[in-house]
Amino acid sequence: xIDAVNIRKDFSxxxxxxxxxxxxxxxxAATAQKPECVIQTIDELYRTCNAxxxxxxxxxxxxxxxKYEQSREKVRQFINAEKKxxxxxxxxxxxxxxxxxxxxxxxxxSEGDEIIISEMEHHSNIVPWQLLCERKNAVIKVIPFDDKxxxxxxxLDSLITERTKIIALTHASNVLGTVNPIKEIITKAxxxxxxxxxxxxxxxxxxxxxxxxLDCDFYxxxxxxxxxxxxxxxxxxxxxxxxQMPPYQGGGDMISTVTFEKTAYAQLPLKFEAGxxxxxxxxxxxxxxxxxxxxxxxxxxxxxxxxxxxxxxxxASVEGLKIYGEASEKVAIVSFLLKNxxxxxxxxxxxxxxxxxxxxxxxxxxLLTHFSKTGLVRASFAFYNTFDEIDALCExxxxxxxxxx
Length: 405
Ligand code: PMP
Known about the structure:
It contains 14 helices and 17 strands. By secondary structure, it is an alpha/beta fold. The chain has two domains: 4-27 and 296-403, Aspartate Aminotransferase, domain 1, CATH 3.90.1150.10; 49-293, Aspartate Aminotransferase, domain 2 (3-Layer(aba) Sandwich), CATH 3.40.640.10. It has a seven-stranded mixed beta sheet, with helices on both faces. The chain has a four-stranded antiparallel beta sheet with strand order 13-14-17-16, covered by helices on one side. The radius of gyration is 22 Å and the shape is globular. The two termini are 41 Å apart. The site of 4'-deoxy-4'-aminopyridoxal-5'-phosphate (PMP) has 15 residues, from α4.
């Protein structure tokens, strides 16, 4: 069982006051707060252990390298990848998707080929594929979703052709909260030998992810939404695909030998880790994973599901409030509009009450176009949020609703 009162002691930022009001932080889908152990790790590493990895034979360099590689192993276990060499440290979800689009695209995508994405993708899982398609003269096809925010996977068969080179889909929508039936989609795609990239940015923080069970070809996520620092993320890729893909960037650490005539690349995963990586934050990501494991991923999921149920019921009872995203399986994200009040007005008035929500396009303009909207308000929850905070949000919204009668 999650004891949010105790857990909140690990997140000192939650004691902050905003305009004299206690902070109610409901913008976890944008970035999550960091527990003390993660902050302390960064502080300690810079004070006691900072030295560049994979390079020196000296004591600190070896210590840092060992911690970095231990963190890679923690990530491997966390998502149940088969091999450590399949875990590549990147700058985040965006960095990982750009890496796959550029490298996989360079090797496997040609003029007239097709890439399937969905209507509910974050811009990070749209634009890198568009850039690739512009370079290669390839085409993007889109799986739509219905008005409840459920992906129309019944249409997938009609979108797949022999030119389909990859399917790139979000595991959980950062706006609708919808958890997509990724495993079913992957099984279908593999019948046609089409690899699948899964954007796990919003799924990894909210439950168990098992890349072997999913059988996905690529799985990507960001550390900062997983209680780890910014600037670090993961690309999981199946070894047999990564082996065939060219390096994304050239530089130190990704080579085995260099001459002016020819360079031989390092083995996986270093082939995709050019230059000095963000190794301190990579180590801190491992500490965040330890923290999540200690708290219990199932405990987190159960508690967040309760928060989601409560928030959905409470919000739906606010006069004039409409929720966008009513799939039966959701992560703890609720996007909404209140009457015809502009999303920015709602967000700014909530802010004055100390309540932090996200407003605007939420980096999903095509998704908003589906609903003919220019912006939404989003409340997104983490396991340190409380039922009292949801009450405070709803009471504030009720007042706003009265103000705009
Ligand atoms: N995909 C999804 C579903 C997201 O929610 C986000 C972050 N909002 C991203 C991709 C991009 O993540 P990052 O900015 O950490 O690279």
